[in-house]
Specification:
Helix 1 runs antiparallel to helix 2, helix 3 packs parallel to helix 4 and helix 4 packs antiparallel against helix 6. The chain is globular and about 70 Å long. The strands form two sheets. Strands 2-4-5-7-6 form a five-stranded mixed sheet, covered by helices on one side. A two-stranded antiparallel sheet has the order 1-3. The chain has seven helices and seven strands. A hairpin with a 3-residue loop joins strand 4 and strand 5. The protein is of the alpha+beta class. It has two domains: 86 residues, Helix Hairpins (Orthogonal Bundle); 149 residues, 2-Layer Sandwich (Heat Shock Protein 90). Helix content is 57%, strand content 19%.
Length: 244
């Protein structure tokens, strides 16, 4: 018997157990913070209503300060919600499913917003794409975040090209926008937890997307150039029994 291997396996199990316990604790703590935070925000809203009709300069200054507190409470609530989703992503129940159907559902949801922004969806979906093992709800959330980011990068219109294709090891999804793009430093940090360039952003959306893709046995990469748009590449394995 390889004692060192047995020890390594036991140590790995212990680390996994510690991670699970820490993730559960963090999620519980986030829930506990959310409750009083919601109370603070709601009471600030009620208090602000009492000051809105006042013509006193002092009351107007107080009202502005209340609105700052409200905005920060809303931002913290969003951050906590994103963190809870991140902490809960552990064991997923996978089923055979279509990557084409997943991305089509997400794009269809954004059609009204895209039309309003002047963004055109260009779809090149491989009709012979094999099924993959997926957890529909979490993959949907990840794709939703990526398409939302692409639209936000094209406030003055543009084009989002969506490609599904077969690869040597599985299938891939390319999301290519003609938006503002990113500097190399920003692109290099975009998957770092809590890093964001958006005002009021949590910095967890792309981290969660990466974690979802990796939980599916896949990987996600990004290519971007400032002023030249951004390309996300998602790759997923196709289990042998599903490829038959």
């Amino acid at each position: 018997m390889d004692v060192s291997s047995e020890y390594a396996d036991g140590e790995g199990d212990q680390l996994q157990a510690n991670y699970q316990e820490l993730a559960q604790l963090a999620s519980s703590l986030a829930h506990e913070i959310k409750n009083p935070l919601s109370v603070i925000r709601m009471n600030m809203e009620l208090l602000a209503e009492d000051f809105e009709q006042s013509e006193s300069p002092r009351d107007h200054r107080a009202l502005n300060k209340m609105k700052v507190v409200q905005d920060q409470c809303t931002r913290l609530e969003k951050l906590l919600n994103d963190f809870i989703k991140f902490a809960r992503l552990r064991e997923l129940e996978f089923n055979a499913g279509s990557l084409n159907e997943q991305i089509e559902r997400v794009l269809d949801l954004f059609v009204p917003q895209a039309e309003e922004l002047g963004v055109q969806f260009v779809r090149y979906l491989d009709t012979k794409l094999p099924s993959i093992r997926l957890e529909s709800q979490t993959l949907h959330a990840a794709l939703l975040n990526l398409v939302k980011n692409a639209l936000e990068a094209m406030p003055n219109g543009g084009e989002l090209t969506v490609i599904t294709r077969q690869t040597r090891d599985g299938v891939a999804l390319d999301l290519i926008d003609s938006g503002c793009g990113m500097a190399a430093e920003t692109a290099g940090r975009m998957f770092d937890a809590f890093f964001t360039t958006k005002e009021g952003g949590s910095g967890l959306g792309l981290v969660l997307a990466r974690k979802v893709v990796e939980a599916h046995g896949g990987r996600i990469g990004v290519q971007s150039e400032l002023g030249q748009g951004t390309k996300f590449i998602l790759e997923f394995p196709v289990p042998a029994r599903l490829a038959e």
